[in-house]
Specification:
The complex is a heterodimer of chains A (352) and B (1112).
Chain A (H helix, E strand, L loop, with lengths): L1 E6 L4 E8 L3 E5 L3 E4 L19 E6 L12 H7 L3 E4 L3 H11 L3 E5 L5 H10 L9 H4 L5 E3 L21 E7 L4 H9 L2 E7 L4 H6 L4 E4 L10 H10 L5 E4 L1 H9 L3 E18 L5 E13 L8 E7 L5 E6 L4 E4 L14 H14 L1
Parallel strand pairs in A: 4-5, 5-6, 9-10, 9-11, 11-12, 12-17
Antiparallel strand pairs in A: 1-2, 1-7, 2-6, 3-7, 8-10, 13-14, 13-15, 15-16, 16-17
Helix pairs in contact in A: 7-8
Chain B lengths: L8 E5 L11 H15 L3 E5 L15 E3 L5 H14 L5 E4 L4 H13 L2 H4 L2 E3 L4 H8 L1 H10 L7 E4 L2 H11 L3 E5 L9 E3 L2 H14 L5 E5 L5 E9 L5 E9 L12 E3 L6 H18 L4 E9 L6 E7 L4 H10 L3 H9 L26 E7 L20 E7 L2 H11 L13 H9 L5 H10 L4 H8 L3 H19 L7 H9 L4 H7 L5 H13 L5 E4 L13 E5 L13 E5 L10 H16 L3 E6 L14 E4 L4 H12 L5 E4 L5 H4 L2 H6 L9 H8 L1 H11 L6 E4 L2 H11 L3 E5 L9 E3 L2 H11 L8 E5 L4 E11 L3 E9 L12 E3 L6 H17 L3 E11 L26 E6 L6 H8 L3 H9 L4 H4 L1 H5 L10 E7 L20 E7 L2 H11 L9 E6 L4 H13 L3 E4 L1 H9 L5 E2 L10 H6 L5 E5 L3 H17 L3 E2 L2 H15 L8 H11 L1
Parallel strand pairs in B: 1-2, 1-4, 2-3, 4-5, 18-21, 19-20, 19-22, 20-21, 34-35, 34-37, 35-36, 37-38
Antiparallel strand pairs in B: 6-9, 7-8, 7-9, 10-11, 10-13, 11-12, 12-15, 13-14, 15-16, 17-18, 23-26, 24-25, 24-26, 27-28, 27-30, 28-29, 29-32, 30-31, 32-33
Helix pairs in contact in B: 1-11, 5-6, 7-8, 14-16, 15-16, 16-17, 18-19, 20-30, 26-27, 33-38, 34-35, 34-38
Classes of the chains: A alpha/beta (352), B alpha/beta (1112).
């Protein structure tokens, strides 16, 4: 099956299609070899993969791993996600690096590349789009499961121990491993929709509030910013990724779109206080401008060593800290797991 | 934390000679460390016994000691260095010189020497080294941090071993403590085998200890390269997955980076474990390598071992990712932290990150069992390969196929039928050719599941091989004339070589590949070049480190500067090793200085030449005509002048010289025609005749009958060998017709293009190597090296000395004269090497002088000098001669190839017709052999090279230099005991004097009858033994009974040849030094005298060279 990727600036890549037949559009990321080890349900981070399409150099037709239950091809087809393979993905990365992130369309149906380029240009830009409310849960639910080892019959964490804290987590596009990590640290987690008012959250009597990751531009999510302002100081708050950006705005700061976002599991982030470096998982296109933050209230805690963008901050007086990256890291390195413990300690101290 | 200021002087320990398990990778790491620390302003002192290394170049350290790597010599180096700067902060860096350096560090610490001279260890502390190296400590440590390890127990006797094996069940793995590359290790499937392997392992372990371990055979094997700094930042540089499952030493496994069949969950668990391991072991700074086994059906992960130092795998990881582990490790050792060190490749980002790969790297080992008939060729926990290649592709399939062609094996996968029983055996038992058998099985349609079960190779890898096979079948469906371009494009993207495509369409012979090339050209199928940049293109890269692939975008646009392409030597082999890499690097350094853009092509990840900052551009590519030609074409596409150097990389690039020229590539230096002429027996013989240079009578033959006929005409013994080989591949001395017949029928392949050469073997002769520089007009001799082994031993296996110690001046002059004539006749531009033989006539009495260097003055008209062979290229001895003379021969040679003249560099030597000067010292080069890796293999030396590496001994007298070289090669001369003496008729006039010398040194004498008579006549007491063929007791019995400590045996003729073989075999097993010439015997006596006086003297190379410059 032939497939085409067309970018908004007119560049076109032709390759082979796998997964679902069809067409998809969005911002563009890539990977060289995918599918070697297949898929399995325990590693899923959401009920379905939240990508529109997948672009790879080599898409493995077979999988080999003792946990593999489904080859990637079937998995992608099941979720109606088209895959474009056999293109020069490195050329694509270099193109995006030099020209910035852009919109694109993958199609296995249309062979006229001009039409696809036109289509790419007509996709709404991510800037100014509130995607959080689109992907968020539409109902409140309680998360019960702690971390599981991928080894058979082995559960890491305290699944059966009674929880010591109650955390309410705003779902702006939350990853399940965050919930597992929180549960693993002894927290009962109630997940609420993105637009849940602060008062409703407080009514749940939480010991702490978690602000999740999520896609899109933080600026249009004014409801979330308002809620955070109302929660600040009332309960300990820990935010990551979009949650961090929303907090930045709530604290009076500004966000901006990076020329090319941070993606991948190898970003060095320095803890400014200790000078130690942690290798972290990133997936963000926006960042908080540190100069826009009120220095008297906000302490900068983490910086990215690659491009010196802000990766973490803490309120000087209130129980509140956030990081831009993914401490739950699934996939990704585990260097930042300590942050969940910090959150628990903050709740302990707040409780007194 | 910034640089430590409490240290100003650092001693770097090298790894000594190249041996199996410890190869050029430590020249690469040591060189990086030297450069990095010098750049940081430290006073760098280097100790290494291996003269063939780049790291021992005098510019790389402030003082370079080419001395034996033993406690005594290191103490003397430390003593002198401490005395030179009494108050300096002085440290030893032991983590870049392999296991050798780590073991030395332990000895230095345990011997109290570090304390005595107030020297610190940096890189790794003794406690960490011991914890990682001692298997029991290691196991405890792993269990303490909750990591799983295979069940195991340390034993120091057979009984305990058997008992434990009974408990955990067979098979079990035996690993001797503290040996290199798993030496002496093995697998035992039953009690009998366990007793045998364990006995050997206990013997080889310096602490007489072995680990008996639960077998994890067939499990998946992974390695992680980890780095840590003083701030406890830990990063993973690279994950490596082994194609061959557990049970095969990782050095003998095909390995793949990054890991291909781990999910992120599993990988992160391994990452967490690695970080925990490096912390628990306590490696404070630097790199470590941690190996894991994973049960393929349950996922159970066990820690196998860790190396608290840079390793072969870290060299591979550095080349695979572009992250220079050794360089960074050196900086971390002096106090920097990872976030303070910039990433060379991106410049903007710090070294504190984890590299990402958007390509796949495959490493394939290179074995040379053909050199060791009788060796056990099955692969197990002890490493047996002598070298490796690495290949980079966008997919595993592409990288694997590039790697296979980079191996330069010359043979293709057999197309003949294989018996099912043999096939099963070949699949089940790991073996050097297993990959070929797997491919065969796939082609025969065996199900992947079944092959996976037999081989325990992950099915994912097998499916990749199947896809390659499917492509092959698809191609075979189409005749070349009508094959769709798209299919050929896909095949090229999978890594199919032009040669393989030619095979598909049966386009045999020279023209086949060319036809494919034209086909590709017509259809615009050509490779593009991508960069290795540590970050999968996330950031811009500044270092042009490239690989080819068939993709859309080329990102290595060539410049329009004048450029020189240097062809490297490919995988290390016996006879084609690090010496050639040294020459290639030097060519690059010199021409870079001269303003050329230098471009290196090589596929050996162990080397300095494949370091990204050795040349202006590095193409990590196979050294085949297809790949080299494509790069030449690419680089010339801007219209820039491109010259190619083929004469520095040994035989591999040399074989490309004519085809490259035929394809229109400009080969610089000595012309390909001259190179070819020197290899062509007939034409070369004619040239020698014209020049009036004598050559031993010889012939070229292409059938067994012709061979016997020729040998009879020439007269036995004869030297028989194929043409166009290096390292004396398949070369033998034949004393009778039978051995010739046998050789022609079994030993080698030959054809009219590649005939067999038969030469008179000049039995009783001194052999000599000469290296010379020539610009086509002027010639300067770099060194005249006298072999100090008997004639007939390959020059690479023979110890030799510079300057020559007892060759009469008249003969030296003849050799110079011939060298000049040949260089001019062959229009040599660059380097040449000539081997001479000086037969001794009974009456000449040329060796009556006591040892010493003063050249003999009387003319010796009776002796003729014969040319054995001429190689118009860099030889194995170039680095050794360069270190002895202080003149960088390869650099000058490279410059001559660009048209510069010898007069610019060495005018005084041309005017006075002088050889390069070795000053007041003697430089002895001695070989190192891999016998301990191949138990049961014939240890007799002959014209086929078997040594893997070399060492150099330096002293102001020949005896001490000889003794040091022997010691550095692991052969300690005795200071007391019994010496066995047996000499041939020619040597008999000197035997009394030699015997007297040993007698005066306190040795008892034992001799065979003829020799004993002479010794007795001179009034010395001597015991008598029979010759081996005569009866018993003979020398072999005495050796086995440990009643002989030194052997002086100068044989000739078929019968003594037999004796000599038997004695040599026994001596190697018992590790007793064997001396085969009178010159060496004198040297040994002098050396022993020095040893008895307890003299330990060391000299820095820089000081020796400075003396000579001062003299000029």
């Amino acid at each position: 099956m032939q497939a085409i990727l067309a970018l908004e600036d007119g560049r076109v890549f032709r390759g082979k299609g796998y997964g679902a037949k069809g067409e998809c559009s969005g911002e563009v990321l890539t990977n060289p070899e995918i599918g070697n080890y297949g898929t399995n349900p325990e590693d899923n981070e959401a009920t379905r993969p939240y990508i529109e399409g997948l672009i790879v150099r080599e898409f493995s037709k077979v999988s080999s791993n003792w946990r593999s239950q489904q080859v990637a091809d079937e998995y992608m087809e099941q979720f109606r996600i088209p895959v474009l393979a056999d293109i020069d993905t490195r050329a694509l990365v270099r193109h995006l690096r030099d020209n910035g992130v852009m919109r694109g369309v993958i199609s296995t149906l249309e062979s006229d590349s001009d039409k696809l380029v036109a289509k790419a240009r007509s996709i709404p830009k991510m800037d100014g789009t509130d995607l959080a409310k689109v992907v968020s849960t539409n109902h409140t639910y309680v998360w019960e499961m702690g971390e599981r080892s991928h080894l058979p019959d082995e559960v890491v964490g305290v699944k059966d121990e009674p929880p010591r804290f109650h955390v309410v987590a705003y779902d702006f596009g939350i990853k399940q491993n965050i919930l597992r990590k929180l549960r693993g640290e002894g927290c009962k987690v109630t997940v609420v929709p993105a637009q849940t008012p602060a008062e409703d959250v407080l009514a749940l009597k939480p010991d702490g509030v978690f602000l999740s990751n999520g896609p899109g531009d933080p600026e249009p999510c004014t409801y979330a910013v308002d809620n955070i302002r109302r929660l600040m100081g009332r309960q300990p708050i820990f935010g990551i990724c979009l949650g961090h950006q929303l907090t930045g705005i709530a604290l009076g700061g500004k966000t901006f779109k990076l020329k090319f976002g941070h993606h991948g599991g190898n970003h060095p982030v320095k803890q400014l206080q200790s000078g130690k470096v942690e290798i972290t998982a990133h997936n963000h296109n926006f960042a908080v401008d540190p100069d826009s933050l009120p220095q008297s209230e906000v302490e900068l805690t983490h910086m990215d060593l690659n491009d010196n963008t802000l990766e973490g901050m803490r309120h000087r007086n209130l129980p509140l800290f956030t990081v831009q990256y993914h401490p739950e890291a699934a996939p990704g390195p585990h260097d930042s797991h300590y942050l969940f413990k910090d959150f628990v300690r903050m709740m302990e101290e707040f409780k007194g | 934390m910034p640089k430590r200021t409490d240290i100003s002087k650092i001693l770097i320990l090298g790894s000594g000679p190249i041996v199996i398990g410890q190869s050029a990778e430590f020249d690469y790491s040591g060189t990086q460390a030297c450069k990095a620390l010098k750049a940081e302003g430290f006073e760098v002192v280097l100790a290494n016994s291996n003269p063939a290394t780049i790291m021992t170049d005098p510019e790389l350290a402030d003082r370079t000691y080419i001395e034996p790597l033993t406690l005594e010599y290191l103490e003397e180096i430390i003593r002198i260095e401490r005395a030179m700067s009494p108050s300096a902060g002085f440290a030893v860096l032991p983590t870049v010189g392999g296991q050798t350096a780590l073991n030395l560090a332990i000895e230095l610490a345990d011997g109290g020497i570090l304390e005595k001279y107030n020297v610190h260890l940096i890189g790794a502390q003794i406690s960490a080294i011991k914890k990682a190296e001692d298997r029991l400590f290691f196991k405890d440590a792993m269990q303490r941090i909750g990591l799983d390890v295979p069940k195991s127990a340390l034993v120091n006797n057979i009984k305990d071993g058997l008992e434990f094996a009974g408990k955990i069940g067979f098979p079990v793995i035996i690993r001797p403590s503290f040996t290199l590359g798993g030496t002496g290790g093995g697998i035992a499937y039953n009690r009998e085998e366990l007793m045998e392997v364990l006995a050997r392992g206990l013997d080889l372990s310096p602490v007489h200890e072995c680990l008996i371990e639960e077998s994890v055979l067939g499990w998946k094997e992974y390695e992680l390269e980890v780095m840590r700094d003083t701030k406890d930042n830990v990063i993973i540089i690279c994950s490596i997955e082994n194609f061959d499952p557990m049970g095969v030493h990782t050095g003998d496994s095909i390995t793949v980076a990054p890991a291909q069949t781990l999910t992120d969950r599993e990988y992160q668990m391994m990452r967490d474990a690695s970080i925990a391991v490096i912390r628990e072991i306590g490696v404070e700074t630097g790199g470590s390598n941690i190996q894991f086994g994973v049960n393929p059906s349950t996922g159970r992960m066990v820690v196998i071992e860790m190396n608290p130092r840079v390793s072969r795998s870290s060299a591979l990881a550095s080349k695979a990712t572009g992250f220079p582990i050794a360089k960074i490790a050196a900086k971390l050792a002096v106090g920097y932290t990872l976030d303070e060190i910039p990433n060379d490749i991106t410049r903007k980002t710090p070294a504190c990150f984890e590299p990402t790969l958007d390509y796949v790297v495959v490493k394939i080992p290179k074995w040379q069992f053909e050199k060791f008939p009788g060796a056990d060729e099955s692969l197990g926990p002890q490493m047996k390969s002598v070298g490796e290649v690495m290949a980079i592709g966008r997919t595993f399939k592409e990288a694997l196929q590039k790697g296979i062609r980079a191996l330069d094996t010359g043979k293709r996968v057999g197309s003949g039928k294989i018996e099912p029983k043999i096939l099963t055996q070949r699949l089940v038992t790991p073996h050097p050719d297993r990959l070929a058998y797997v491919q065969y099985a796939i082609r025969q349609g065996h199900p992947i599941k079944q092959i996976a079960k037999m081989t325990s190779i992950d099915p994912w890898f097998l499916y990749q091989l199947k896809e390659i096979n499917d492509m092959q079948l698809e191609l075979e469906k189409h005749p070349m004339e009508s094959v769709p371009t798209e299919i050929v494009r896909e095949a090229k993207r999978m890594g199919f070589s032009d040669g393989r495509l030619a095979g598909v369409w049966r386009l045999d012979g020279k023209g086949g590949q060319e036809k494919i090339r034209h086909f590709r050209k017509k259809h615009k199928l050509k490779p593009v070049y991508k960069r290795v940049d540590t970050c999968a293109a996330e950031f811009e890269s500044f270092t042009p480190y490239m690989y080819s692939t068939y993709e859309e975008e080329d990102e290595a646009a060539p410049t329009s500067k004048k450029k020189i392409i240097i062809l490297g030597s490919g995988p290390n082999r016996i006879g084609q090793g690090i010496e050639f890499d040294y020459c290639c690097c030097h060519a690059s350094y010199a021409l870079r200085e001269d303003g050329y853009e230098t471009i290196m092509i090589n596929c050996n990840p162990e080397t300095v030449s494949t370091d990204y900052d050795t040349s202006d551009r590095l193409y990590f590519e196979p050294l085949t005509l297809e790949d080299v030609f494509a790069i030449c074409e690419h680089e010339a596409s801007t219209g820039a002048p491109v010259g190619v150097i083929v004469q520095f990389g040994g035989q591999t690039p040399l074989n490309l010289s004519l085809p490259l020229k035929a394809a229109g590539i400009h080969v610089i230096g000595t012309s390909p025609e001259s190179i070819d002429l020197a290899e062509d027996r007939k034409r070369f013989g004619k040239l020698l005749e014209e020049l009036d240079i004598p050559q031993a009578p010889g012939a070229m033959v292409t059938s067994p009958e012709e061979a016997v006929e020729a040998a009879k005409k020439i007269g036995f013994p004869v030297l028989v060998r194929p043409s166009y080989v290096l390292g004396g591949r398949a070369m033998v001395i034949a004393f009778d017709e039978d051995s010739i017949m046998q050789y022609m029928k079994q030993a080698v392949e030959y054809s009219h293009d590649r005939p067999i050469l038969i030469d008179k073997f000049l039995e009783d002769a001194i052999e000599v190597d000469v290296d010379a520089l020539s610009d086509g007009e002027d010639v300067v001799i770099g060194g005249i090296m006298q072999h100090i082994e008997e004639a007939g031993i390959h020059s690479g296996d023979s110890s030799c000395v510079l300057p020559a110690v007892d060759i009469p001046e008249a003969q030296l002059k003849v050799m110079r004269d011939y060298t000049f004539k040949l260089a001019r006749a062959l229009k040599v531009i660059g380097l040449m090497n000539i081997q001479f033989a000086i037969p001794r006539e009974c009456r000449d009495g040329s060796s009556t002088r006591p040892s010493g260097a003063e050249p003999r003055s009387q003319a010796d008209s009776n002796s003729k000098v014969y040319v054995i062979e001429v190689n118009p290229r860099a030889s194995r001895t170039v680095p050794y001669v360069s270190k002895a003379t202080g003149v960088p021969l390869a650099k000058i040679a490279a410059r001559l190839m660009t048209g510069r003249k010898l007069r610019e560099f060495l005018p005084e030597f041309i005017e006075q017709a002088k050889d390069l000067d070795t000053g007041r010292c003697f430089y002895v080069k001695s070989p190192v052999f891999p016998w301990s890796k191949f138990p049961g293999v014939d240890t007799v030396l002959g014209p086929e090279m078997k040594s893997t590496g070399e060492v150099m001994g330096v002293a102001d007298n020949f005896g001490e230099a000889f003794y040091k070289a022997q010691l550095a090669a692991g052969q300690k001369l005795p200071t007391q005991g019994t010496v066995f003496i047996s000499v041939n008729d020619q040597d008999k006039p000197h035997v009394a004097q030699i015997a007297k010398r040993f007698f005066e040194l306190g040795f008892k004498l034992v001799a065979t009858h003829g020799t004993a008579d002479l010794i007795e006549n001179s009034g010395l007491p001597v015991d008598r033994v029979y010759k081996v063929k005569e009866g018993r007791p003979n020398p072999v019995d005495l050796i086995k009974a440990e009643r002989i400590q030194l052997i002086v045996n100068t044989p000739h003729g078929p019968d003594p040849y037999f004796d000599e073989k038997a004695i040599r075999r026994a001596a190697v097993t018992a590790r007793i030094p064997t001396i085969t010439t009178i010159s060496a015997a004198r040297a040994a006596a002098d050396g022993i005298a020095a040893l008895q006086r307890g003299e330990v003297k060391v000299q820095a190379l820089q000081a020796l060279h400075a003396e000579r410059v001062a003299k000029l």
